[in-house]
Sequence to fold (711 residues):
Amino acid sequence: MSVVGFDFGNENCLVAVARQRGIDVVLNDESKRETPAIVCFGDKQRFIGTAGAATTMMNPKNSISQIKRLIGRPFSDPELQRDLKSLPFTVTEGPNGFPLIQARYLGEMRTFTPTQVLGMVFSDLKIIGQKNLNAAVVDCCIGIPVYFTDLQRRAVLDAATIAGLHPLRLMHETTATALAYGIYKTDLPENDQLNVAFVDVGHASMQVCIAGFKKGQLKILAHSFDRSLGGRDFDEALFQHFTTKFKAEYHIDVNQNARACLRLRAACEKLKKVLSANPEAPLNIECLMEEKDVRGFIKREEFEQISIPILERVKRPLEKALQDAGLAVENVHTVEVVGSASRIPSIMKILTEFFGKEPKRTMNSSECVSRGCALQCAILSPTFKVREFQVQECFPFSIAISWKGAAPDSQNGAADNQQGTIVFPKGNPIPSIKALTFYRSGTFSIDVKYADVSELQYPDKISTYTIGPFQSTKSERAKVKVKVRLNLHGIVSVESATLLEEEEVEVPVTKEPSREPAKMDTDEVPSDAATKGPNEADANMEEAKSAADASGVENGVPEADKPTQMETDTKVEAPKKKVKKTNIPVSEVVYGGIPAAEVEKLLEKEYEMALQDRVMEETKEKKNAVEAYVYDMRNKLSDKYQEFVTDPEREGFTAKLQETEDWLYEDGEDETKGVYIAKLEELKKQGDPIEVRYKEYTERGPVLDQLVYCI
Ligand code: ATP
Ligand code: MG
Ligand code: K
Fold:
């Protein structure tokens, strides 16, 4: 079983693996730790990661980047619309109102969903892990931004499934960082609490979390974020600055040229990085467009001036985190910054001023998320033993459920008034299960939604569950217990619905002292639900299990699948009452979600595309092998094989090699793998005998030498 942590960034991805001696961030094929989150579609194959980044400039319209920004968002999302403006590829609205990426692949225009493209990135990361572990990678833990919506979380899971991965947990990036920070710390207080603020400024967003550490545990006190504040905003400010400048000075409008845009953006990003270490920096691009070379220059002060609108927003998430954690700034003992965009000096200045202390950089700021995820995966995996360390996560949004229906005490019809209650308030521990009781005479439905849309700026609807059909044998209004789960990934769903029917039966009273009544209270909803006022409506909510009890990963066996069961009530002194429990079917509609059957199809498609990539890579390898053989043989024929061939033999073979070389550049430039294999064999038929003669001679040599020596 694999134990792997993935950090998929807007810009860069990292893979960390757990080995017996610890966590390692592993290298990709190009020996880099960071792999760009790019998929480039080509005429014969895809190029993903570093290979994708390398082909982007040549093929900008088919190079898909910023995938993390695109997944799980409706096309009409204003943030998505804003992001699309600066992306060189085409995205259109699909029939379901979600974005479709247009790209030329295998010689024709095709469409891909962002989830599918993320699946491709995951496939690439999975291969990186597999090459390093020399084993299959399936189980993993994936880092996600804390602000990801339910739909975005589902999209990440779907993308993982498409890549053949099985995430044990989607983990908030800042929590992963906190885990990576705390688990190795040997000086955590036994009784006091060490409060640490983690600030992550990445490529597109900023996240803050405040964690309280004690020996052997961390508790997330608050999360906050700005979904659109990151390094790329500074790139954009520089881009706008130079676009205007070049319009005036060189009379060119880079916005008219996708490649020029891409090159100027890349140059601005570089410039920004230079400005982190230097007070000023030049910008030179040869032949940017219309055959014009452009030159520019900027001082850090001017850069900070044009960045003011961005910098002004940095403080807000900091304030919000403090407020939600209920802490004064003095109570934050340490500030740790991560994320590469936090290297911008003006950001550090704001953080220092806000917290009244110098933020620290003790974490490896680009690797900490993947490391934390690998640690979490190790903790969840039965194959690893990890130092005892508890992570108490909290959920960043309030989740409500709502339903139509009459208040429980009203027998007549006002059956369509909308009612609701908050099931998981902001800050609720993850995971968690709540149970609600409804009194209903037939099939009904409930909606899951965000309770506070302002904190998310998102459509409030998440999903609708239809509960039924069911038939109550006794009263008209049956008692139905509905379990709602906030799972380890931070995804909310209705897990099961149970029809509860009390039936009095004459059973001799038997004492069951071993069963505690208190336990029943957590399993059964008290019957006073029916007497609740209209505000509390007809749902009575209680914790079904504590967070700790429910901490297992989804076990895949929903209660609804279990057969009807009878359970005996345990009121010791009363006449026996039986509660008959019958599972009721629950059907789910997630807004914007992909049905499981569709994900299955996408998995097959991904497999086909990956196969095509592999065939193309192997074809390239075989072609290279022919070319290498030609050069190698030609050298050897005029060098060490010289004395082992006759003149006509050498001339014939040299001609053959030349002919092959010409063929490789002409007719044979674009052949199948099999043709190259056959070509190499054909050459070897002539070359091998020469090689054998040479080998026989040289191998005999040392034997004789040794004999001489022995004598
Ligand atoms: P996200 O966390 O938003 O998903 P990510 O994890 O890919 O994105 P990081 O790798 O943490 O983001 O940061 C990338 C950003 O940091 C880019 O905008 C990059 O230009 C910027 N960056 C990298 N090095 C420096 C530097 N020395 N100075 C300023 N910015 C830098
Ligand atoms: Mg990041
Ligand atoms: K474990």
User: Anything to note?
Assistant: Residues 4-229+313-392 form a domain with the Nucleotidyltransferase; domain 5 fold (CATH 3.30.420.40). The longest helix spans residues 596-637. The CA atoms of residues 70 and 519 lie 46 Å apart.
